[in-house]
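In this section we walk through a basic example: taking a raw amino acid sequence and producing a predicted 3D structure, encoded as discrete structure tokens. The instruction is simple. Fold the sequence below.
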Amino acid sequence: MAAVGAAPFLPGLIPANAQAASSGRPDFALATGGTAVGIFVDAADDPAVVRAAGDLQADVERVSGTRPDLLRTLPRSAPLLVLVGTLGASPAIDRLAAQGRLDVSRVKGRWEASVTQVIERPLPGIDRALVIAGSDRRGTVYGIYDTSERIGVSPWYWWADVPVERRDTVTVPSGPFTRHEPSVRYRGVFINDEQNLTTWSHRTQETDKNIGPETYRRVFELLLRLKANYLWPAMHPYSDFFNKYRENPELADRYGIVVGSSHPEALLRNGVHEWEPWIAEHPNPDGSAPVYDYTVNPAVISDYWRARARQNAAYESSWTLGMRGLHDSALETKYATTIPEKVVVMNDIIADQRRILAEEVGAAAEPQIFIPYKEVLDLYNAGVQVPDDVTLIWPDDNHGNMRQLPTEAERARPGGNGIYYHLSYWGRPKSYLWLDTTQVAKVWQELRRVYEHGTDRMWIFNVGDLKSIETGLSFAMDMAWDVNRWEAGEVEDFLAEWAGRQFGHRHAHEIAAIRTEYYRLAGELRPEFIAAGLVSVVHHGDEAGRRMAAYDQLLARVRAVGAELPEVYRDAFYELVEYPVHGAYLMNLKYYWADRNALAARQGRGAGTNRFADLALAAHTAEAALTNRYNTEVAGGKWDGIVNPYPSQIPKAPGRPAVTRVTRQETSGLGVAAEGNETGAARPLSFSSYTRDQRFVDVFNTGFLPLDWVAEASHPWVVLSVSGGSLTEQRRVWVEIDWERAPEGAQEATVVFTGAGQRHDVPLRVDNGRRRVRGFVEAHGYVSIDAAHADRRVARGGCRWRTVRGLGRRTGAVEAVPPTAAPITGDFDARAPELRYRVRFTSTGTFPVTVFRLPSLDERGQRRLAVGLDDRPVTVLSGQAVATGNRGDAWARQVEDGVERLTADVTVAEAGEHVLRIFMVDPAIAVDQILIDTSGLPATYLAPPESYHPVFNPEPAPGRGLEAPDQ
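The resulting token sequence is shown next.
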């Protein structure tokens, strides 16, 4: 296929902090007609640059089929040349800069900046050159990989099998193209929870190791292609510790990767693997083994740290200060039992470590970082003294919510601030290790918040086993490089651009929409968090069934795109799109059928109970087959062992659900369960001409022998999806109203079900009162509002509410910004930004209003908002501000649910239109939904569907849940 440039990749590739200029000159041909342009890199340049130039050589061959020469000396003559070099390390580059022919004004002296520019007659005998020049070694490396991506080589070409389109002619624009300094200085990942990664690495990469140099070689290249520069390597018992193989730190230095260590691994020491061998060689005078407690064995521990500092002094490293217990456990201090005593111990530890680094590493011992993770945050807040040149790394709560952010004084520290943020997590209250399920809009919201708090020195992302986090990691790295690239309403634009780079532009927007809906469903409930009986199969049209119907539709869209992609894209599509969606679907599906099975058993169903058990176990079997395909078939079995929802040694996704079976009885009987009722029809079916509802009635057989049944409506304007037939198991009957024929006003009707000598009456309450209204309308005993659908937003005091698309359980949530604003605790009408919602009430009384806020924390502050109706006094609601780390408490519930429910009462004295008002109290509060309960709603996991609104929801979709097979 002949083409010019990289059509699938170029649009949108250049970020906001880069500058590209069009010279009007022809593009530069890297390869054409079976000939590739030679690549020159000076022999004196950094080994990281020389190595990356070799990757460019390979990338040009991947695209064109022709391998260019990699030159270490300048040719005497050449019509075209790629000239790669670092300022100060490449005489040819320096000469062009000194002559003013290469514009380095935005590059020289900067951190990891680069310029790419075509220069005519740059050197004697060279007619034209594509110059890639960096401010430092990584700046040059990123310039090289930019060129690779611009010609069509995805950063994920190896790790996700994204194919490289072959072209006879390969060109890049003549430029100049300047990539400025990144927003965040150190940008990297923590490979954690790595049992699957270890399994895969041992099987396919290094059969004599459990993650070694060959695996890290692949990891380093991926990081650099993603414009990352930093790594916390694998550290758990089932992986080999990083320094076990001296090739690892040497290799990292040769690639230009800064290696650090996680919060329990002080001074690059892996306590899981290294402490026991150390103390075996350094016993106490009495022969006993020293314990890892600084109040007991400070000298032994200090020597332990010193040995690693001396060993790795020559490499570009990051040095973690402080101390926790071995293997990510809490700090042990036998002789310091109170918080003040532990603060003194931590200060002594830091002073000792600083002394070691000064003596063994010297001025090169930077960056030094302190990570106040879990209980260490309490010690820091109680008075631990961290030297000003040490970077403070602020942790999230392990579920994507920053626990606290730097004060103005902390922002002024020369060491700066960073974050440790989880895209994958192992621990309390629940783990999410299997799929990439954190909404990218949530990542955007928190990263914008931390950046606006001056936290820009280091961002580390926990990526678990790396595979399945491809999309989230790509977004996080894009944000770390250029935090201003994407605004609140543009996260789906990132997904479209990213999908275009992997699969071409034809399907980019559809894949982005698929990923957005996938993230939304995970925002309602992560597939790793599903549990029996969590989501109702009875209320609101079968809320669990409605989720499954949304998944079903999403999977159909995935299959439609997959069917249109060329065969060469199938592996990448399976890894990046199909497996996550299909896997999440099946994880939810097996528990949906298991919940229907449990309900059927309670209802006394016969054959239908067993049918639901069969469906649940079939979904679990299908999920296992899906994962097996990933590990054994995709990419020819390349990923053997990399994906497993149920690893043996770490927290697991929910496995095979429990089901109930009933013994066959040669009987039959007719039963019904109307929506809103576990059995029978005590709660009438409710219909409103505003919401145009469909309601279900489950008709079922209490035995195993077939029976005939009939359904008959009391009025001709009551419409049934089916009015009878033969029944062996069950049938779901949908009831709706023909609103053109129904009388106006409040009506009552009945649907009568008969069969097997039995009769069941299902009552209906129908309100046909639709008229012109201006706001949300009460119906069915509630008003349900998507928070982004405010009738009016009022900005005050430099603060406002903005919509973050793709955030929360609906299509977007609203956030109070700027996140650095001061709290507003009074005079809300005059000082606080406000959301106003018109609501038409048909009921009067005092009603609970529940605000579904998205979790966010501030352990040195509060998380508050205020609610009021009309001009009456407001109620200030306080949300959870502290991450407790305990199972079952308020914090645990909100991070598992993805929302925190805050409730106040409002009084409606007379029916008609009113205005519900939401005020910011603390900044960075995000509101997703609002629910006003006017008649004692049943408690459900999800809020009811949004109420009618003439602008935001003029034609509510009635929707149906996933249908069970009819028998």
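Looking at the output, two observations stand out. Confidence is low (pLDDT under 50) at residues 1-14. The radius of gyration is 31 Å. In the next section we compare this with other chains.
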